[in-house]
Design goal:
Elements: H1 2-8, H2 20-100, H3 104-115, H4 119-123, H5 125-142, H6 149-152
């Protein structure tokens, strides 16, 4: 039994002592490993930052694209409404002139001039004025009916 107790009660051997140079080399190696870990962490953080910046740029571009599309739709709607308003105004003007006609010949001449005007002419007021004046001058040679550009066609009254 005594032999059994000797097996369980082993004395611990003293730890091996490292020399001063070995301790310095060990500390230096541990510092190197710690620096490498720190650099790897920083590299991962940099990658994450780059990824978030890329995501933010994509979100910003998509947001700007959405805003741009909305603006374009608003502009198209405004242009469409303006076109409709000009057509309606021209139609009212057309009937106003046709009501002013005193004879059937004047009515037919007026109808001929006003019916020849295209929708594209209505979008450009200057072109519309020139077209109406040119055609009305041809009518003036035949009759006394005239169309006043400044009064009715949206021409500039200050001229």
């Amino acid at each position: 039994m005594v032999a059994d107790e000797a097996i369980f009660n082993k004395t611990e051997k003293p730890k091996k002592k490292l020399s001063e140079a070995q301790l310095k080399a060990l500390a230096k190696g541990r510092a190197k490993v710690a620096e490498k870990r720190k650099m790897a962490e920083q590299k991962n953080n940099d990658k994450e930052i780059v990824k978030t910046r890329i995501i933010q740029k994509k979100e910003y571009k998509s947001k700007n694209k959405t805003i741009q599309l909305k603006k374009e739709e608003e502009i198209q709607e405004r242009l469409k409404q303006e076109s409709i308003n000009r057509i309606e105004a021209f139609t009212r003007l057309k009937y106003k002139y046709m009501d002013k006609a005193k004879t059937l010949q004047e009515l037919d001449d007026m109808k001929t001039v006003l019916d020849d005007i295209q929708e594209e002419d209505l979008m450009d007021l200057k072109k519309l004025s020139q077209t109406i004046l040119h055609k009305s001058k041809n009518l003036n040679k035949k009759s006394n009916t005239s169309i006043n550009e400044k009064e009715d066609c949206g021409g500039d009254e200050s001229e």
